[in-house]
Design a protein that fits this description.
This protein has 414 residues and is an alpha+beta fold. The chain has helices at residues 2-10, 23-46, 119-161, 167-206; strands at 52-58, 60-61, 72-82, 85-88, 94-99, 106-107, 112-116, 209-211, 216-221, 228-229, 244-247, 252-259, 271-276, 283-296, 301-308, 320-326, 340-343, 348-350, 353-360, 367-372, 374-378, 382-387, 394-397, 409-413. Helix 3 (119-161) packs antiparallel against helix 4.
Length: 414
């Protein structure tokens, strides 16, 4: 019995300290947490939280186009061009003797720009002058003979009446008189022809002098003394076709290419505000001259001519310019309209009323804010919003029917 009790006393459970947790298991747990966070971020970016894709446009204040008091219905870009610009050349082929112009020089109408070598023209003129002198001498000689023949015919006429001379002698004298009269008429016609030849040769001499056809400014000097110039291209590119190019600065205007889709907004006599790229703070009043009645098939544009109402030496040909076609002329009488101008596509219908969605929130978290608006018609496919939208706000174009107030949006184009 004692031995069994002793054995039972020896039975016991030894409690040893637990081992420390494994580092491998800790890293696995952290990796699982990071993957879960990344998956949630990717889902937020690529999933339904991206928002509805929309296009937007700015709301422009009516009456605030450049501070002119008129609303801009269309903006376009173009270039300054000259309606009167000419590359001046000689009417004849010749060697340049002297060039009297330089780039930037102002010339008056008829001012001499250059002269050609006049040797050939002067020789032709001298020959014509000598021919005219010879024909005039011939006229004088025939006229003197005619005077004598007429006197002889009158004398024989009296003698033949008294039967002192034969009628044959009288008739011979009359025939000689008439022959000299015909010779005088022929000589006089030859003298007139010689005079015309002299005048034509004088034109040839004058053609050696190149004059400005109108007042303007020289923008290019093309020839130098000693070169051959010709009104026609010849000599394989070694013959100049012009002396210089001049521009009438009073004929400057603007040419603008307007897209076919927007040409309906432009009308003749429409007020325009022009801004030169070189002087962005200078607003130049202008006016539409005409819409050229043809389209460019390749660019799908229509050319519009715009007249500048201000002349200034800073305006030069081929300058880039931005124009704003205005709804009305600055300073026109009548009440100044209030509100903002937005594309008609920004106005939608909800529950029988007109609404618009305005972009709210910061970049990357934009939401659509529903606004009830009051509108009036405007030219060029636009609407004037008189209430509900402030100038400078951005509106959503063609809002889908499923878009609601506070829905998240993503701007894809403006």
């Amino acid at each position: 019995m004692n031995s069994k009790a002793d054995l039972l006393k020896e039975l016991r459970i030894e409690r040893r300290p637990e081992p420390p947790p494994s580092r491998r298991g800790l890293w696995i747990t952290l990796a699982v947490i990071v993957v879960a966070l990344l998956a949630g971020a990717v889902w937020a970016l690529l999933g339904g939280e991206r928002g509805v894709e929309v296009r937007t446009a700015p709301a422009i204040a009516v009456g605030g186009a450049g501070g002119s008091g008129a609303a801009s219905v269309l903006d376009a870009s173009g270039y300054v061009v000259a309606r009167r610009m000419a590359t001046v050349s000689a009417k004849i082929t010749g060697r340049v003797r002297e060039v009297l112009i330089e780039e930037g020089m102002a010339v008056a109408e008829g001012q001499v720009m250059a002269t050609l070598d006049p040797i050939d023209a002067d020789a032709q003129n001298d020959l014509a002058r000598a021919q005219l002198a010879a024909t005039r001498s011939q006229v004088d000689g025939v006229r003197a003979q005619l005077v004598e023949a007429e006197a002889n015919a009158r004398r024989l006429s009296q003698l033949v009446q008294g039967q002192l001379v034969s009628r044959a002698q009288y008739e011979q004298a009359v025939a000689q008189r008439d022959t000299l009269r015909a010779q005088l008429a022929t000589a006089q016609r030859s003298a007139r022809v010689a005079d015309e030849q002299l005048r034509i040769s004088g034109i040839g001499v004058d053609n050696t002098i190149v004059r400005a056809p109108f007042a303007g400014v020289v923008i290019a000097k093309a020839a130098q003394p000693g070169e051959i110039v010709s009104p026609l291209s010849a000599g394989g590119g070694f013959t100049r076709t012009g002396i210089g190019t001049i521009v009438d600065m009073d004929s400057l205007e603007i040419e603008v290419d307007v897209g076919e889709a927007y040409i309906g907004r432009v009308q003749a006599k429409m007020p325009v505000e022009a801004t030169l790229n070189a002087y962005p703070d200078w607003k130049i009043p202008a006016e539409v001259i005409a819409i050229i009645p043809t389209a460019d098939r390749g660019k799908a544009t229509v050319k519009v001519r715009v007249a500048l109402k201000e002349k200034d030496p800073r305006i030069v040909p081929d300058m880039g310019v931005t124009v704003s076609f205005l709804e009305r002329a600055p300073g026109d009488a009548g009440e100044v309209p209030r509100g903002v101008r937005v594309p008609a596509a920004a106005i939608a219908s909800r529950d029988g009323g007109e609404v618009a969605f305005v972009v709210a929130g910061e970049a990357g978290g934009e939401v659509a804010e529903l606004r009830t608006v009051g509108t009036t018609a405007a030219p060029g496919g636009q609407r004037t919003v008189v209430s509900g939208i402030a100038p400078g706000e951005t509106v959503v174009l063609d809002p889908p029917a499923s878009l609601g107030d506070g829905d998240r949006i993503r701007i894809v184009a403006e």
